[in-house]
Every structure is written in C-alpha cells, then in structure tokens.
Amino acid sequence: MPAAVADRPLQLDRSPLPPPLEAGSAFTVLDITKSYGETTGGVKTYLREKGKYVAGRAGLRHVVVVPGSRDDVRDEAGSRWYRLYGRPVPFQ
Prior knowledge:
This protein is of the alpha/beta class. 15% of the residues lie in helices and 29% in strands. It has one helix and four strands. Strands 1-2-4-3 form a four-stranded mixed β-sheet. β3 and β4 (79-85) form a beta hairpin.
C-alpha cells in the first residue's frame, strides 16, 4: 500500500491537507460511503476500479471518502482517499 501523504496521524482540525491531485482537472468525481470494508466487498471493488479508470484519463480527478480505523489521507491508484474514523464494518 502506498505511503500516507503524511506519516503522522491526520488531525483534521490542524493538519494541512495535501495539494489537489491533477490540479486544474476539468472534472472531479467525489464518492462518499458510510459502509466500506478494508478487506473485501463490492463497494471497495467498485471504488478501486473507478480509480484505475480515472488514473488513465487526463483531466479527471477522483476523491473518495470512507470510514476507517483512523483519520488518514492517501493517494492510491489514481484516487485520493480520505479515511475518517468510524466504527468498523461487522465481520471485516
């Protein structure tokens, strides 16, 4: 998994956010979900495949907001992922 944008935990009220991916993109897609499993699931598959699609096209930017075990920002497969602390999905 790629390194976090910042190696220290993200504090949304104090941490500077990273610069935009593909600055000046003509179109940004934002996906937000309250149900996301780190290890499996259709939502995970869909969002990762969408990131691969966006990564191969100039002028597109993909931002994803999902729950996670801690607040974090990562750039992965053409997408910027914001993980915000939330309760885990059962059985994940």
